[in-house]
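In the previous chapter we treated chains in isolation. Here, by contrast, the input contains three separate entities that must be folded as one system, with a combined length of 724 residues.
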Amino acid sequence: MTDETIRDVLTRRGLSRRAFLQVCASVTAALALSPAEAADMTKRLETAERPTVIYLSYQECTGCLESLTRSFSPGIASLIFNDISLAYNDTLQAAAGQAAETAKDTAMKNAWGKYVLVVDGSVPLAQNGAYCAVAGRSAVSDLKRAAGGAAAVVAVGTCAAFGGLPYAAPNPTGAVPVSEIVRDRPVINISGCPPIAEVITGVILYYTTFGVPALDHLHRPMNFYGNTIHDRCYRRPFYDRGMFAKTFDDEGARQGWCLFELGCKGPITHNACPTTKWNGGTSYPIESGHPCLGCSEPGFWDKGGFYKALSTPTGHWSRTGVVSGAVAAGVAAGLSTAAVARARQGRAQKKAASADSEPKNPTS
Amino acid sequence: MNGASVLDFARGPVFEIALAMLIFGIAWRLVGIFALRRPVDYSEPRAGTGWGSGLRMIVSRSWPRREFRERVLHWDIVSYIFHVGYAVAILGYVPHIMLIRNLTGLQWPGLPGGVIAFAAGLSAGALLALLGHRLTSPVLRRLSNFDDYFSWLLAFTPLVTGLMAYYGIGGNYQMVLGLHILAGDILFAWLPFGKIMHVILLAFSRGTTGAAYGRRGAPI
Amino acid sequence: MPLSRGVIPIRPVTAGAPAGGALADAILAEIASALHEYLDTRQNHVIDLTGMPLSREDRQRIDAYLGQGEVSMDIHALVHSHIEETAYAGVWRVRHYDMGGGVHSERIEIIDVPEIVRASSADMAHSARRIEALRAEEGA
């Protein structure tokens, strides 16, 4: 581990302090820091050791890495991340086989105890972890070993944070999120399918300068996951006025009305999409006319359907089965209750009739 | 249990159980009542079959007769505020209409959130006033049993949790929304088994009484 | 004809906070107090507009109020930055562009010269070394 700072790295590349200040402006803007915090961050970044990031992938689709490295126009933050701090990544490196394993070991050894471990993908536990193995070692044992030398673990993407798609019912591989395996290190969850690139890099740089950020109950940084999509949605006024698009091509959809009826999960989804946006700040899904899928929330895959309104039942059982079963049982119960009642009515009538026909004793 | 799982639980299995109980209960009570032996009326009908009188009474009993107005009209009005506000909130709010559409395929245009919140707020206020009246009126208090208070609570909880969800009170939106749907589920499930069944039986009980009186020639 | 115009009639809806220009007024007030603060204590101040939910009206009002000053500069370092003084001395607008040409950071700075413009001592020392190296090379 060198004691190089981010500033040193830029200088070595012939870039001035101005380049460094550009980086700082980018990061503080992404993190929405107050002026005082931003000044503090700039000061700290000046002397902060450059972060060493080791990026490991397990049960994942590489979408998160795509988000990080192939953003529309590479932002400064991703440049920092890719060129300055990333010490190891399976997917991006040229090395393969034994050379790759050696590179990983070296990267870990050089920064043992100090590196930020980024994990992408869930970890399968079924069949002793045989569903995901790298170089003959199961994901679970690989993760445990790598986490041993990490200062902090950043779970990138909903798979790593909450299990994601591999975790979806019936979860054949016994997938679990990173936080189930790593219990003795701070775990920061950056959920999303995928997460926004600026959020990933922003959190890593924040960690380098200030340490673990304030987290919500799901261990997501409050800076980015403090509000719901619905809270910050520019279509919110239409929700409040009761103006909803009913289909994807009706007048409401064209006028940009609220997408709640088309299944938008914005009200229960915490993420920075409406403010940070995607593709270098171009837009976010709702701006493109599509309801929020809720991809940064646990179990978003199993919430009854992306296009089902949030207020409707998830359709747990067969509706016809429930309704016809209940009607049949209800009618049967009603008939038997009535039969009992009729029998009682009959007995009472008979008793009354026989009482009428019996000679009355005038004295009693 | 966190907010997300409460919400999933309420929208998932609990909703299905509640729906099953609602349908079962309504079928049970209606069939049970209709299959009863009718008392035979040997008297000669004074005015037709009574159908007209039955229908008339469903409407006429919706407002107190002149003799009682001074004593009960104001409470009737409070009760109407509760009922109308409740109906507006249930039938006018788009997320509720989505549920009805999901169940029945029927739908109609919704009302703005502010109108719904106002109606629900009025309804909740009226419901509180009615509880106060029930607790303070010596006659009503003696007439009330567990069913009345329990039904009151089940009617009140969805209103309060719904308003909380609408205004973002209570912090965790998912939890509040989950509890609101859960409260709605419980109301659904309990509806046929307690006094809230008047939602459905109201027309039948008034109609039957009206028909019987009508046959005997009583003014409806 | 682009597909979007011909086949799917697209009528874009402009995003943005529905509020009027309330934020612009707040920002102006902040600038005024920051100028006093700077004169008294030499403490610079930065208002980051990037994450602010500014309406179009807000932006128009900010632009109209601040106007254009005497100085404008461009920095070509890691990315392109454009700096210009507003009609008010010591109130600067600093925009950093990303590689695609979009603005990724936009701020108003209250200071005599924006910090990013100054050549740092470290960079100047580095320059001195480079010139000496060049002279040594040419001399050899």
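The beta strands of chain A are 53-57, 86-89, 115-120, 123-124, 133-134, 137-138, 150-156, 175-176, 187-190. The radius of gyration of chain A is 30 Å. Compare these points with the single-chain example from earlier in the chapter.
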